[in-house]
């Protein structure tokens, strides 16, 4: 079980214009997957630009526990010597994933397809998160939960089958984690494993499967979905992976530049995968001045430098089918909406209730406490902006959620009064350099004892 650290209170206050260039940390989704595919390949995989936050480091330790040689060569530079599909060993101790929902769920897929047993654990936040959505399809493939906390939550012990069964599985909700877990388990199943998505979710797993030599096909399904087929039991070949900047992390300095008058910030090398650009699309609809320059490809993904200038925003209606392309960005979008003119309605946000915290409730509470007109209707969050700075001045409970902490610190940069968050410790899970990089742009942020 992860150790408990003392809360680190942080405060942000109205700043002058933000100026400069910034590269957000490596994409968290790709970082987890690069390590895992390095484990499952035969030979040495080299990774550059790896996010070295606590979540990803937990996945690196789990890969080592399952038999890989994992070595840090320098900042963001890692080497993984894998054991190949079918070559995993049972770990000697529980796999502690800390706060890493993605790492734990993807690794359940890996373990669930192999004839090994592993115990999964994490911090208080991860222990509260639902795992049935992963365990249900793995059970169809022959995996068995031999011990768990109430409701199939962590800590739990998962035992894979002697031979995993290939299945056809339609995901009950849009979830790249569920899709990826089934595909990862299907790697060690004979035959073809098929996943059907009614709403297309981020496709890093499919892209990386191809890069490592797996046979995977993707075709449209229905109005917004995809059908993915994977041929099992390949010999994955090691690859060179360059991880682009994480759009979910870049979202915080991006919105900060939009709301701090006079700002101009360039965000370097941000992934622009179409299944990850929902926030940029929505902010552009709101009138945001965002220009993509130097479009190129890194690590098999489209990337660009984003030039962001401050300016007025207006409220918009965000359709529910956009949620899978921006599920982690709704907290910071809600902050942008607080500075906009008119009503922004974010529809279909049920998935936010089962993230690191109940993000829907936490965002709403933080907004209202700081003088923003906001309400929840069913699974929708409605924010009515007044085209001026919110009042601020109130403390915000983060519920151990890094994105809540960063979102409300960004709000403080434009609010009338400083905004305080009760704990910034968890920011290290995804964006360990957030505070120094933001202050380097001119943001007034600091931690308090």
From TrEMBL:
Q: Does the keyword Cytoplasm apply?
A: yes
Q: Which residues does the annotation say bind 3-phosphoshikimate?
A: 28-29, 33, 175, 177, 328, 355
At which positions is phosphoenolpyruvate bound?
A: 28, 101, 129, 177, 359, 403
Catalysed reactions listed for this entry: 3-phosphoshikimate + phosphoenolpyruvate = 5-O-(1-carboxyvinyl)-3-phosphoshikimate + phosphate
Q: Where along the chain is the active site annotated?
A: 328
Q: Which GO terms describe its molecular function?
A: 3-phosphoshikimate 1-carboxyvinyltransferase activity
Q: Which UniProt keywords apply?
A: Amino-acid biosynthesis, Aromatic amino acid biosynthesis, Cytoplasm, Transferase
PROSITE patterns (UniProt xref): EPSP_SYNTHASE_1
Instruction: Cite the EC number.
Output: 2.5.1.19
Q: What is the annotated localization of this protein?
A: Cytoplasm
Oligomeric and partner information: Monomer.
Q: What does this protein do?
A: Catalyzes the transfer of the enolpyruvyl moiety of phosphoenolpyruvate (PEP) to the 5-hydroxyl of shikimate-3-phosphate (S3P) to produce enolpyruvyl shikimate-3-phosphate and inorganic phosphate.
Q: This protein is called what? A: 3-phosphoshikimate 1-carboxyvinyltransferase
The species is Methylopila musalis
């Amino acid at each position: 079980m992860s150790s408990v650290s003392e809360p680190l209170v942080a405060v942000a206050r109205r700043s002058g214009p933000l100026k400069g260039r910034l590269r957000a940390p490596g994409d968290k989704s790709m970082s987890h997957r690069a390590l895992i595919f390095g484990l499952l390949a035969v030979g040495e995989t080299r990774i550059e630009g790896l996010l070295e936050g606590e979540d990803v480091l937990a996945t690196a330790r789990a890969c080592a526990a399952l038999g890989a040689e994992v070595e840090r060569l320098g900042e963001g530079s890692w080497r993984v010597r894998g054991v190949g599909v079918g070559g995993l060993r049972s770990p000697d101790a529980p796999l502690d994933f800390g706060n890493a929902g993605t790492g734990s769920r993807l690794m359940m897929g890996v373990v669930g397809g192999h004839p090994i047993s592993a115990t999964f654990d994490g911090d208080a936040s991860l222990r509260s998160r639902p795992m049935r959505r992963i365990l249900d399809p793995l059970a169809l493939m022959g995996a068995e939960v031999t011990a768990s906390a109430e409701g199939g939550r962590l800590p739990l012990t998962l035992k894979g089958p002697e031979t995993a069964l290939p299945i056809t599985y339609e995901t009950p909700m849009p979830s790249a984690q569920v899709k990826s877990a089934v595909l990862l388990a299907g790697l060690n199943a004979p035959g073809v494993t098929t996943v059907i998505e009614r709403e297309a979710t981020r496709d890093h797993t499919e892209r990386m499967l191809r890069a490592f030599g797996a046979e995977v096909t993707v075709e449209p399904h229905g109005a917004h979905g995809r059908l993915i087929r994977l041929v099992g039991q390949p010999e994955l070949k090691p690859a060179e992976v360059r991880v682009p900047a994480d759009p979910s992390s870049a979202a915080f300095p991006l919105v900060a530049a939009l709301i701090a008058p006079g700002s101009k910030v360039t965000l370097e090398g941000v992934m622009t995968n179409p299944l990850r650009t929902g926030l940029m699309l929505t902010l552009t609809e709101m009138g945001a001045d965002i220009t993509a320059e130097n479009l190129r490809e890194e690590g098999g993904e489209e990337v660009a430098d984003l030039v962001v200038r401050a300016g007025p925003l207006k409220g918009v209606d965000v359709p529910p089918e956009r949620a899978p392309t921006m599920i982690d960005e709704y907290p910071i979008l809600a902050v942008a909406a607080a500075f906009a003119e008119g009503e922004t309605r974010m529809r279909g946000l049920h998935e936010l209730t089962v993230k690191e915290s109940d993000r829907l409730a936490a965002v709403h509470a933080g907004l209202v406490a700081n003088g923003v007109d906001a309400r929840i209707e069913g699974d929708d969050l409605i924010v009515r902006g007044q085209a001026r700075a919110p009042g601020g001045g109130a403390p915000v409970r983060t519920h151990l959620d890094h994105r809540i902490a960063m979102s409300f610190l960004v709000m403080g940069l434009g609010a009338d009064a400083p905004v305080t968050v009760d704990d910034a410790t968890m920011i290290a899970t995804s964006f360990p350099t957030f505070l120094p990089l933001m202050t380097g742009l001119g943001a007034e942020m600091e931690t308090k004892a």
